[in-house]
Amino acid sequence: MTGNACLRYLGTALIGGASLVTSACAGPSPDGHTQFKAPDVASFRPVADMLGKRCGTLDCHGSTVRSLRIYYWRGLRLDPADVPGIKTTQAGTTDAEYQATYTSVLTLEPEIMGTVLVQHGDPTALTIVRKARGAEHHKGGTVLEAGGAADRCLIGWLVGKGTGTACTDGLAIPHTLKPFQGL
Amino acid sequence: MMRPVLLSLLLCAPPLLGACHPDPVHSDKVAAQGPEDPGIPTGPLHRPGQPCLVCHGDAGPASMVMSLAGTLYQEDKSRNPLEGAIVQVFDSAGHKTATATNCMGNFFIQKKSFDPVWPVWVQIKYGANLPAVPMSSAIFRDGSCANCHHDPTGRATAGHVYFLPQGTMSFPKGGCK
Question: How would you write A30-95 as a 3-class SS string?
Answer without folding.
Answer: CCCCCCCCCCCCCCCHHHHHHHHHHHCCCCCCCCCCCCCCCECCCCECCCCCCCCCCCCCCCCCCH
